Amino acid sequence: MTRATPTPTPMVSTPKLVASNGSPPFVGGHLYRSVVGMLQNLCVTHPDVAFCVNKLSQFMNSPSNTRWKAVKLVLKYLIGTMDHDRRSTTGYVVYLGSNPIAWCSKKQAVVSRSSYEAEYRNLANCVSELLWVKQLLDEIGLSPCQIPVIWCDNASTVTVIARF
Questions:
Q1: Distance between CA 125 and CA 136 in Å, rounded?
Q2: Average pLDDT for 131-148
Q3: 18: number of CA atoms within 13 Å, CB side?
Q4: pTM of the predicted model as reported, rounded to 2 decimal places
Q5: Do 74 and 106 share a structural domain?
Q6: How far is it, in rounded angstroms, from Cα 73 to Cα 28?
Q7: Do residue 74 and residue 96 come from a single domain?
Q8: pLDDT tens digits, residue range 70-102?
Q9: In the prediction, which pLDDT does 142 show?
Q10: Gap between the Cα atoms of 75 and 153, Å rounded
Q11: Which neighbouring-strand residues pair with 102?
Q12: DSSP-derived 3-state class of residue 20
């Protein structure tokens, strides 16, 4: 597996992992159980493979060549995502009229537990930037005549913020 080609997904939709798939039995049953057990432990830090590992662990007593290929696919996925840090990217643009005057695109400093949390952090950074721009415009005597509009594409974040 050291020279394995990384894959972008941990599982494919075909062939389906079902109780009897007609695939010849895998001769390394102990190896299958050992690797799937290792993958179960890895699910603590890689929840993105939990569904696949759950499926694969249903066949501990009857490993087949098809199921072993599925195990190897999960391993290839993990090889390809080793350097992923799971931090979200923050991005926003502040416009004055139709002209961009401030913008940002960077990785967030911490790992967010949900897309809602990542978007909320992003909006907090955006509002901070807007306040700074407003102060700058006030200092130079260009007070904006419109209330700033903030756009967000995450429905749960918009719902929570609308309650404030």
A1: 17
A2: 87
A3: 7
A4: 0.57
A5: no
A6: 17
A7: no
A8: 999 999 999 988 877 778 888 999 988 888 999
A9: 86
A10: 34
A11: 94
A12: coil
Q: Looking at the structure, do residues 13 and 64 belong to the same domain, yes or no? A: yes
Instruction: Provide the residue range defining the domain that includes 53.
Output: 1-84
Residue 92, helix vs strand vs coil: strand
From 84, 103, 122, give the residue that closes a domain: 84
Kindly state whether residues 44 and 104 are assigned to the same domain: no
Domain count, the chain: 2
CA distances from 121 to 76, 107, 126, 135 (A): 32, 11, 9, 21
pLDDT at 84: 76
Q: Report DSSP letters for 37-89, one per residue.
A: HHHHHHTTT-GGGHHHHHHHHTTSSS-BHHHHHHHHHHHHHHHHTTT---PPE
Q: Among positive and negative, which fits the CA dihedral 94, 96, 102, 103?
A: positive
Tell me, what's the pLDDT at 21? Answer: 64
Q: Same domain, yes or no, for 56 and 103?
A: no
- Is 57 a residue whose pLDDT tops 80? yes
